[in-house]
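Suppose a classmate hands you a notebook page containing two proteins, each written out with its sequence and a corresponding row of structure tokens. How would you begin to make sense of it? This section walks through that situation. The first entry is reproduced here exactly as it would appear on such a page.
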Amino acid sequence: MFFKFFISILLSIALTNCNNGSELEGTEKMKTVEYVDLERYMGDWYVIANIPTFIEKDATNAVESYKLADDGTINTTFSFYKGSPEGEKKIYHPKGFVFNNESNAEWRMQFLWPFKMPFLIIELDEDYSYTVIGYPSKKYVWIMARDPQIEEKRYNLILDNLSEIGYDISLIQKVPQIWSK
């Protein structure tokens, strides 16, 4: 089981061209939000839609949770059910690093040492009710919200914004959020 997970992470890293460099190709072309209040950003975020990585394909009830650690890193828990709410539960614990301390809007996520994946906060509602995470090459994107659903009008505006900055929005897939009461 662990070996399978380890191999899948290695493949993901190889396929996404992760690196630790301060200058990533395309980073300067993707504008982040001006400032992120890390304390307000912490907590649970429901994944509303994404251009999925291979581990996220067929994810249901995906939630990303952040907790600020004493050393300034971000303890992250990413969980979802494979295929349906009754499917196998998957849980990952990447570690987040704030890469730009002026804005707190550019992070690196580390699934496997020493590789870190760029994590760019490109949209954030002023009340922190939704956020959009971009990736420099535009191969990936995550639309997340504090609630399992967002208004369709808001979702379409986010898609319009992503299209304007060069994302192929036909690749964006809604993530089913089917929670029993």
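The notebook's second entry, a different protein, reads as follows.
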Amino acid sequence: MLHNWNDNQPIYLQLRERIVTQILEGKLKEGEAIPSVRQVATDYRINHLTVAKAYQELVTEGFLEKRRGLGMFVLKDAQKKLLKEERDRFMAEEFPELLRRIRRLGIEKEEIIRMIQQTAEVSK
């Protein structure tokens, strides 16, 4: 399994984000074991210490737990906590910039509403 890595960010952080995305999308479920460090290192062709660092970040943040002799597991409420964290970050960091850009481009509220409705129809 080959994956493209962004040179502008450490691989362990990119791997952390991929795991977070899998939890948010329900691909990794609460209480479920995640692939071993060795397996991920082999699949992604990266150093096992890089994988271990990404996993440790998620343990420290309270989204994964290590069960001795069993591996790493997604904690209860991890998806809910991650969703709140992602929403809060979006509203604090990305949304204000998006609004500034909308204003700079002179896009009217009605046009935004129409675009949201069209996008919602397409994604049904």
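A careful reader of the second entry would note: The chain has two domains: 11-76, 79-122.
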